Amino acid sequence: MLELVSYGAFFLTVALTYAVIVLGLNVQWGQTGLFNVGVAGFVAVGAYVSAFLTAAPATGWLGGYGLPIWAGWGAGFLAGGLVAAGVGRLTIRLRADYLAITTFGVSVTVQLAALNLQPLTGGPFGVSQIPRPFAALAGEALAFGLANLGLLAASVLVLYLVLEHLARSPWGRVLRAIREDETAAEALGKSPRRFRIEAFALGGAIMGLGGAMQAHFIGFIAPENYLPMVTFQVWAMLIVGGSGNNRGAILGAVLVWAIWAASSVLVEALAPAGEQARAAALQTVIIGVALCAILLLRPQGILREMRRLRPAPSSKTDAP
Amino acid sequence: MMIPQILLEGALTGALIGLGAIGLTLTYSILRFANFAHGELLTWGAYLSLSVAGLIGAATGASLPPIDPFSFTWALPVAGLIAMLLTAALALAVDAALFGRLRGRGASTIIVVMASFGASMALRSGLEFLYTSKPAYYTTELQIAMRLPAGMRATPDQLLMLGLTALVVLAVHLMLTRTGIGRAMRAVSENPALAGLTGIDTRKVIRVVWILGGALACAAGTMSGLLVQIRPYMGFDLLLPLFAAAILGGIGSVPGAMLGGLIVGICEAFAVHLIGAEWRAAVGFVLIILVLLARPSGLFGRAA
What we know:
The complex is a heterodimer of chains A (320) and B (304).
Chain A: H1 2-30, H2 39-54, H3 69-91, H4 96-116, H5 118-121, H6 141-168, H7 170-180, H8 182-187, H9 192-218, H10 228-241, H11 246-270, H12 276-297
Chain B: H1 3-31, H2 38-60, H3 75-104, H4 109-131, E1 146-147, E2 153-154, H5 156-178, H6 180-190, H7 192-197, H8 202-227, H9 234-249, H10 254-274, H11 280-294
Helix pairs in contact in B: 1-5, 1-6, 1-8, 1-9, 1-10, 2-3, 2-4, 2-8, 2-9, 3-4, 3-8, 5-6, 5-8, 6-8, 9-10, 9-11, 10-11
């Protein structure tokens, strides 16, 4: 029983780290319509920057400054945001799918850098011994698991409230206006390019934060944690939950992670020992087909975007 | 190493990239979306050639000698032609099941791009399921490189690939510029609505684009499989160089895609010799960034 509870806490904590990343993607895609195919790259940047600053020093590695965990989270947030701002400045003025291609390139290149810049990233073995929150409780699995779950749940809640507030703020309204009718928004004197870059940077920053949180919860990182598969999972979470909807993003993260984990357990249990890799490939096929089917059959996801149209109490910010 | 040899190696990779990029640039300009599943058409083409060649080998008793001076038997070119048809059929099937439906519903470009991302995942993992991730080879014959002028060395297989690529590119270029369907394709690429109004059968154009793109991807995948090896990730790993070549050449331009492919291949070869093979995959990204900074419409592209 106790084991079940601590497994549940572990599962939910990982799912909530994904929820943070999905919330970041929702700022970019759900609210602004910017397509990011390099989610894994931004997550990796946050994770590596945070590990670089907070882990203990090791031979042959330039990082390891032993900074507190919250500083690592902050640095991961900033680093993800900076990379996203750079990519956004470069591509957002061009056609929409150039951003997709460029972000894909970012994730390939970040992965390559993680693998090859050994002095900065630890190379193929990555970084271990990343400090974990509530490390003092590590002896008691249950208390440790619940404390981490509490921390993550509180972080997701705060992030959710901030993002909801932002979406209702004048900034969020302009973003939606640009997404729905760019020409009209431009006619009202809003620069679509500036708002899009800001939203892209904010989304990238949140992904970096999510990467840092994940790194600290798991305790080690390696280049193969950030393969294109991660991007795919995060997209599946957002699409299933319903893009444009922050609650849907969180629900999608937990649900898809549950399906993913359950099907992995099933694959391990059912597939014969020599056929595990094959069965895992089949699992990916099914999930890829499912994503396409959702796009075809129910593109709005489980929870639709909440209609925020209501009689405007004042037209201060909406008026030209 | 001598510069001519680096150029030759770059041209070999570049020819394959260019061949794959032609299909990508055509789907991009006529169907108007970046197809992230295009790399998987290369991979499927390579594996289909492998399977058909295996079937031919089994049917003929596997006693064929290699065609002198090349490393493969007659089974491979025959299998390659059949696989080109099969890959074209696969491209048409994916379009009928996925992209065509999204198009019919008037889905936004980005939804189609995302669907192509999902299709890419499913197609690639499907191959991993069928063939496992262990590399496969068309032939186990070893080839000795021949001496060429200027101190260059190449195997007969490699020279054949260069020649075949040149022929294919010429044929596609002539088809686009000299035939009715080629003119129709360019018209749809310029302005689909207007092309439809003047009586051009847009559906037929779309079918031809997929057939052409699939067949060329199969040719590129099979050649790459012959020169290197066949892996489920081979096409996915080529995706960034393919996009780099298409953007560099200007979306929609066939000569541009080929020239872009050669530039990407040669840059990769120099990067491998000057910096190290481990950074090869970043070359495509760096080139994309440079093109987007300097000339987003590419070498032969029209300004958007």
